[in-house]
Q: What sequence folds into this?
DNA sequence: TTAATATCGATAAAATAATATCGATAAAAT
DNA sequence: ATTTTATCGATATTATTTTATCGATATTAA
């Protein structure tokens, strides 16, 4: 009903990081500027931003307001708690990853079969404490960084404990109930996809006879 | 010209991991089975798979061949070398990440201003050695895990050294030449997006009066 | 050998997303 | 004050993606 396309939602964080990292004193940004820097269609940018706030003709969008509106819309102001399950190298890296805080996600702790370890800023706890903590603190979001062979079983137990959304780093397909939202992040395929794009780009430049790109 | 949609390409790794992790002795898989397990439209699955190989009516797709074809298509058999730039927690985690090997990406080494460190299986080298190694080994792919404030400058120097594709973990927009392929991975926004999806799903279930979903 | 069934593949239709165009508005310049 | 210019917003067009439908094919069983 609110009719915001998934594609648009995917681009909104892009605008946000762009606006945030762009060091400038200008109070206004125009959609055309953004589109040029991000190499997107200007109308597309305008249409996306129109979902979030309205700009002023001739001047553009008030930069600070736009950032605030994007953060508001994306729900970054809401403070969510999350846990990490699996304290291997990746899990521990994410446990100390500073970026989550900035987007309003508070990572409480990591859990691992190896048991307690409080040498880091945030604790690593034994997996046996997970169920209790998740229920007591009403945590709904989990980051899953266990080895692939264990992922399905662990995910099932997370579901049983009341977790409703899982960011899954294990390269397996999780079979869970319909109500659980699963978002897969496969670092290997991201990289492999990049390698493929590169290979394709090279092919194209090597065989320009085939290209009739008009 | 080869007209494979971007959406399809995004789904192919999904099929691959599904086929790989699905423990079964069956030699054949049907597109309908896949679509049910992955909760996709069966025709969509069939159409996607048709880009890669052809199945047999009545029996389905030969499982091993399908895996091989997907890997072949996605270029996982080609062995690419990559480097990691920025050996913080995330960079080191990725350096030892076992998943890349499986997809035909060989991570040679990580580079960091902190200098050499060979305590891990793969070396962390001083950033001063980067240019030489990239040029000597003709490395084209870099994984960028430096802090956000340094990302743009480092990326520029990578471009100068001959890197042609960057998997960027820094939450900033990189401004580089057109020929450099940049793929952004923002772990924080992935998680934030998940949190938002969860919030939306709850809203929907709380206010069913608004829903006229048919 | 023939009929029934499950599955593929191709074509068509519907839904969704991206782009182009045009008029309106407000700031700046003459 | 009027013209010019840059930008937004809305509508319309085009392209892409997803879904539905139909016929063909091979396997199984009678």
A:
């Amino acid at each position: 009903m609110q009719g915001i396309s998934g594609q648009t939602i995917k681009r909104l964080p892009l605008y946000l990081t762009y606006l945030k990292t762009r060091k400038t004193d200008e109070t206004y940004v125009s959609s055309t500027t953004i589109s040029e820097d991000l190499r997107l269609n200007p109308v597309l940018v305008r249409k996306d931003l129109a979902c979030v706030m309205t700009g002023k003709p001739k001047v553009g969008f008030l930069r600070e307001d736009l950032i605030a509106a994007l953060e508001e819309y994306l729900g970054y102001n809401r403070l969510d708690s999350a846990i990490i399950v699996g304290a291997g190298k990746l899990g521990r890296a994410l446990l100390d990853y500073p970026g989550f805080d900035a987007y309003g996600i508070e990572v409480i702790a990591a859990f691992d079969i190896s048991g307690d370890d409080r040498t880091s800023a945030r604790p690593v706890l034994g997996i046996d404490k997970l169920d209790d903590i998740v229920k007591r603190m009403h945590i709904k979001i989990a980051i899953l960084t266990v080895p692939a062979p264990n992922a399905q079983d662990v995910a099932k137990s997370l579901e049983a404990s009341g977790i409703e959304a899982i960011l899954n780093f294990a390269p397996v397909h999780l079979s869970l109930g319909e109500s659980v939202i699963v978002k897969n992040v496969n670092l290997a395929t991201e990289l492999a996809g990049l390698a493929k794009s590169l290979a394709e780009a090279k092919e194209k430049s090597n065989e320009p006879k085939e290209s009739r790109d008009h």
